[in-house]
């Protein structure tokens, strides 16, 4: 699809990326490889410096990163980290602020800050972990004013395979709340495969037989295959960490409590992630929630 005049202009300007972790680093890299001028900052400088070889300009501070940038993207751990970074950056009024992080109900505080500073707020959390981010295959859940879409859509096309616009005002938090619903499903899937494989081990059942039965049937899916393979191979290379999954579970529970909805499975899942973290698996992939099933390993 031909680029719009605004998109061509944006490629001559700077897109600032605040946060270069598991998702933020490939976001910055993919934007740069798509032809956008990217300036990145991270609280741990070494994570941002690794991007220099991919054409990304590395900034020494958040304020330096956003200087002259018409679009600022935040990709950080949670709402408090996002708010701290955007306050330190202090982008000028009129800047489009694209918020990619999973922040739950903290989106309301972020949107209020955007209003105070005259920023155009686009609520756009992403669905996907390390591999989809690296491949530019994230799903972007977006809510934002129609007049900002022409500017940000080419950015979303560079980092994702699909954009789902769920609202015309980022301040409603519609996209962030959809992300909580999706994370509820991710938590259920993660612990479902982990507990089934743990029970197989406990009962002396060959876990490969369980995987074989599920494979190709109505219970099969790509996520099941990825997480079961990680557990069977004892390979917990982080796509999304146990600690971040526990944080996301807390966000789901907080939002559900305010809505008057009981989330028994998510509460149990949060506790499992916490036990796995306490046993030293916090930085490993969320599949390591598997270890919470064994009292002699936690």
Describe the structure concisely.
This protein is 51% helix and 13% strand. With 298 residues, the chain is an alpha/beta fold.
Structure commentary:
It is a single chain. With 298 residues, this protein is of the alpha/beta class. It is built from 13 helices and nine strands. Helix 9 (174-203) packs across helix 12 (242-259) and helix 9 crosses helix 13.
Main-sheet strand order equals 3-2-1-4-5-6
Estimated share of beta-strand residues: 5-15%
Shape: globular
The low-confidence runs, each spanning 5 or more residues with pLDDT under 50, are none
Tell me how many strands there are: 9
Helix-strand string:
HEHEHEHEHEHEEHEHEHHHHH
Structural class: alpha/beta
Q: Termini separation (Å)? A: 52 Å
